Amino acid sequence: MNAPRHYLQFKDFSRAEYDYLFSRTRWIKDRFKRYEPHHPLFDRTLVMIFEKASTRTRLSFEAGMQQLGGSAIYLNTRDSQLGRGEPVEDAAQVISRMSDIVMIRTFEQSIIERFAEYSRVPVVNGLTNEYHPCQILADIFTFIEHRGPIQGKTVAWVGDSNNVCNTWLQAAEVLDFQVRVSTPPGYEVETERAGLYGTGNFVHFDDPMEACRGADLVTTDVWTSMGFEAENEERMRDFADWQVDEDMMKVANPGAVFMHCLPAHRGEEVSAEVIDGPQSVVWDEAENRLHVQKALMEFLLIGKIDEERI
Ligand code: CP
Ligand code: NVA
Fold first, then answer.
1. Ligand 2: nearest atom to the Cα of 228
2. Strands of 167-252, DSSP E
3. What residues are annotated to the active site?
4. Would you say the pTM of this structure is higher than 0.90?
5. Does residue 5 lie in a domain region?
6. Whose CA is nearest to atom 7 of ligand 1?
7. Could you tell which of 48, 51, 54 is best to mutate to test the pocket of ligand 1, judged by most ligand atoms within 8 Å of the CB?
8. If you measure from the C-alpha of residue 262 to the centroid of ligand 1, how many angstroms do you get, rounded to a whole number?
9. CATH number, domain at 294?
10. Do 72 and 205 fall into the same domain?
11. Could you tell me the residue range of the domain that residue 19 belongs to?
12. Are residues 37 and 149 located together in one domain of the fold?
């Protein structure tokens, strides 16, 4: 049996594969908008394992698999044996014998890596403490839809150097654009944890305004990610000057877009004026999770499809 292909972090795919995925997403989205059925994954089963809460990820994977002709099963830690200490390796062997593809949202990246090692079928990262590759897949597709290719562009990240930030940094290396990150002292990017090659696509700024100056895309995320709730009070104090507001958007390029993976906290990491303002593309960004993940699942299960043949 050939080893399956997994999607555990952004750098698992090449630039050419992303070019394919983005053009395939366009095709899948256009067809979906015309209510034209597309069922390449008829009879296939997706298992979704959640060890953390989710709205978008669950909905987009479950709806996406159904729209592709397959079915999706939801498991969580609370009411499966996963929460009672069954080894990840055993769970991987069993779950992957009964399904065609598995999506996991969990804590440490090492958990999903262990699962993938013992899985007979492709495993997709639906968010770990370290990475959130499906999110950045959707974000970059959204940028392309609004502004064209991302190569050579500048992204400003303001706030916590979390899983979403790390994934932007990997994407910058694979697709060749710049990410300017501004975090409060003590919350800086850990390049090894981010899994960076060190190609020079990442620049740190102490001042968030300077990070945003001339940026084509300004983005942020919650100050306290899932799993770090105990640090919440301290983080509220430490991040107070790292809110994306209208002044930051003013120093960005006039055509800059604002993104947030959601859920958002207005008045904390972003002001209501920005997230609900004219430069915000957050609803397109959320919707595109559905379309990019359909292209991703099709790619992992069937491979590249020559559109001429369909
Ligand atoms: N952005 C995102 O992954 O949202 P959920 O936590 O709702 O899945
Ligand atoms: N950084 C956030 C993203 C939520 C989609 C978290 O991990 O909680």
1. 8
2. 178-182, 202-204, 217-220
3. 105, 132, 135, 221, 261, 289
4. yes
5. no
6. 55
7. 54
8. 6
9. 3.40.50.1370
10. no
11. 10-132+287-309
12. no
Query: Do 53 and 142 reside in the same domain of the chain?
Result: no
CB 117 within 8 A of CB 138: no
Q: Tokens 């779950």 map to which residue?
A: 95
Are 75 and 96 members of one domain? yes
**183 near 189, Cβ under 8 Å?**
yes
Q: Give me the pLDDT at residue 78, please.
A: 84
- Number of domains, the chain: 2
User: Is position 270 within any domain?
Assistant: yes
Residues 278, 139 share a domain: yes
| Same structural domain, 72 and 109 | yes
Ligand 1 contact, 294 CB (< 6 A): no
Residue 75 is assigned to a structural domain of this protein: yes
> Distance between CA 233 and CA 225 in Å, rounded?
13
Whether residue 139 sits in one domain with residue 119? no
In a domain, 201, yes or no: yes
**Two tokens at 304?**
């590249």
Query: In the prediction, which pLDDT does 80 show?
Result: 85
Which ligand places an atom closest to the C-alpha of 53? 1
Task: Verify that 157 and 249 share a domain, yes or no.
Answer: yes
Q: Are 145 and 284 contacting, i.e. CB atoms less than 8 angstroms apart?
A: yes
> What are the φ/ψ torsions at residue 272 (nearest 5 degrees)?
-60, -35
Query: What SS3 state is found at 83?
Result: helix
Report the pocket of ligand 2 as residue ranges, CB < 6 Å: 127, 162-164, 221-222, 225-226, 261
CA dist., res. 202 & res. 282, Å (int):
23
Going from the first residue of the chain to its last (310 residues), give the mean pLDDT of each consecutive group of 10, the final group possibly shorter. Answer: 93 98 98 98 98 98 98 92 91 97 98 98 98 99 98 98 98 98 98 96 98 98 97 98 98 98 98 98 98 98 77
- Smallest Cα–Cα separation from 270: which of 205, 230, 212? 212
